[in-house]
Write a sequence for this structure.
């Protein structure tokens, strides 16, 4: 048989090539970035060199800014996301199982879902002041209304035959919810957790846009005033990095908790 | 022998945006205690609908289902069901899947685990007690489903094409296994299939369902002696039965094609 190329349609390729290509691409971008800034092709005010960005990160680490910022931001994200999740799970499960509750809530949720979160900042300040609570509220609004619909769908994807089986075993509605629908949908719900907590990282800057005196998002906004592009670059990359780490942690934990799920 | 299960004048229509779809039309059947009866019929004739009604999962538009002369009001633990799709709980091991059916039983934990062990042995799954469903083949999954449907001792076992998704070899083995389990634990079985060989091989009687709207059109008694074995599949009497059943189904299929054209 003819030797396979790397470009067969929908065909697996060796794993090391797959991983290596991804890493090389990032390395290539970094290298190109370094060359562009070293040759001074772009004003450093617009594009600091990778070395500058790394040094800026090291400086923040040395001076302890990075730690205080990270603590403040992670705290806000955790509280905001937990609030949203603690409400989204029961409501999503009820909406996915009872048509009446879906009919009652979905139109409202759909309406709120499309409202721009940034535009809600003035209102949240008016309602919640300028403390951490206002940040929680922004993160809550950014996640809850999406998450609840995702969880509703997760629950609806439980095979109907499993529910029918529960009925033939004489289970009550409550027992079917608790002992069949909940465990059956848990892996998918966990995946919704992973995706929505990822979104909170992207909402962080919005949450810290006004009236914050620390936080990773705040640092970026402040840097704009001093034209400190290296601080902006570092901040953006660091938030992206933390988002990625959260994602990997959730994936890892999910594979452990739900080892029975995939073959 | 006493009558165990009766379907009395069952009709069922589904509402759709194109109007009413009549799926079952005055369907009657009666199963004696510990009888093994199959229903064969063309696909879409309403076999699953009838089984769901007997299971109590679906309300008939007309008629009623009687178990020991008592009209049913919904699903109940007097009937066990095995579906065509693999309906195991993927988060539970084989043992826990079967134990799940005993959750509400008022017997001691020791008795429960003895029952589970016994049924695991009956369906030949020794050594797989702690396996998860994803680690099992299709045939093994259906064996767990059979054990789970029997472990709480329902007096009627309802099976909707339980071997429909299996390959021919596995299917043959599962048929023999089910017959052995049935002989060991004696229950009344209503078995739905579209495989005529399977229906003859397993049953005391084969009921033939008409094209939609379905009703029981004919009944053929299977006088082959038990225990049955695979040599019977090629015996002249088996061939004769098969010929009769296929002829009856063929008439029904032609009828349905006429209606649709
Ligand atoms: N819930 C339902 N709503 C509308 N139509 C249905 C429903 N369930 C089954 N049907 C229709 O009823 C007919 C019989 O279905 P079914 O009982 O599954 O047939 P079989 O099991 O014999 O193949 C089919 O035409 C099917 O489309
Ligand atoms: Mg069917």
């Amino acid at each position: 048989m003819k030797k396979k190329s790397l470009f067969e349609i929908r065909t697996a390729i060796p794993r090391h090539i797959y991983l290596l290509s991804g890493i090389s691409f990032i390395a290539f971008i970094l290298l190109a970035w370094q060359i562009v800034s070293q040759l001074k092709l772009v004003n450093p005010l617009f594009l600091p060199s990778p070395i500058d960005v790394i040094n800026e990160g090291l400086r923040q680490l040395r001076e302890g800014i990075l730690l205080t910022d990270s603590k403040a931001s992670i705290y806000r994200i955790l509280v905001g996301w937990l609030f949203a999740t603690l409400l989204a799970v029961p409501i999503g499960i009820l909406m996915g199982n009872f048509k009446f509750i879906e009919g009652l809530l979905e139109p409202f949720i759909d309406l709120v879902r499309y409202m721009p979160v940034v535009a809600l900042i003035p209102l949240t300040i008016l309602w919640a002041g300028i403390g951490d609570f206002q940040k929680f509220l922004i993160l809550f609004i950014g996640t809850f209304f999406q998450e609840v619909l995702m969880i509703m769908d997760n629950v609806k994807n439980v095979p109907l035959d499993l529910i029918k089986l529960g009925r033939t075993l004489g289970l009550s509605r409550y027992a079917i919810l608790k002992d069949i629908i909940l465990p059956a949908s848990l892996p998918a719900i966990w995946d919704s957790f992973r995706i929505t907590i990822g979104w909170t990282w992207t909402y962080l800057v919005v949450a810290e846009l006004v009236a914050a005196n620390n936080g990773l998002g705040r640092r970026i906004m402040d840097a704009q005033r001093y034209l400190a592009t290296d601080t902006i670059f570092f901040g953006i990359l660091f938030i992206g990095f933390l988002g990625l780490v959260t994602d990997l942690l959730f994936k890892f934990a999910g594979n452990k908790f739900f080892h029975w799920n995939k073959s | 022998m006493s009558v165990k299960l009766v379907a009395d004048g069952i009709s069922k229509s589904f509402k759709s945006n194109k109007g009413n779809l009549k799926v079952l039309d005055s369907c009657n059947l009666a199963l004696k205690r510990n009888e093994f009866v199959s229903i064969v019929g063309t696909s879409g004739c309403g076999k699953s609908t009838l089984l769901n009604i007997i299971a109590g999962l679906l309300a008939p538009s007309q008629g009623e289902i009687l178990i020991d002369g008592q009209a049913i009001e919904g699903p109940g633990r007097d009937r066990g069901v095995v579906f065509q799709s693999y309906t195991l709980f993927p988060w539970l091991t084989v043992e826990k899947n079967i134990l799940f059916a005993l959750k509400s039983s008022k017997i001691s934990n020791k008795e429960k685990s003895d029952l589970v062990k016994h049924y695991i042995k009956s369906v030949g799954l020794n050594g797989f007690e702690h396996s998860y469903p994803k680690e099992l083949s299709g045939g093994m999954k259906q064996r767990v489903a059979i054990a789970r449907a029997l472990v709480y001792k329902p007096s009627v076992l309802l099976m909707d094409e339980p071997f429909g998704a299996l390959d021919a070899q596995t299917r043959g083995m599962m048929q023999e296994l089910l017959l052995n389990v049935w002989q060991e634990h004696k229950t009344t079985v209503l078995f739905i299939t579209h495989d005529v060989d399977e229906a003859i091989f397993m049953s005391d009687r084969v009921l033939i369902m008409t094209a939609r709207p379905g009703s029981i059109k004919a009944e053929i008694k299977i006088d082959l002696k038990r225990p049955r074995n695979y040599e019977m599949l090629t015996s002249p009497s088996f061939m004769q039965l098969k010929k009769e059943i296929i002829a009856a189904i063929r008439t029904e299929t032609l009828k349905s094609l006429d209606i649709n054209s």
About this structure: Residues B 47-48, 160 surround magnesium ion (ligand 2) (CB under 6 Å). The two ends of chain A are 30 Å apart (CA to CA).
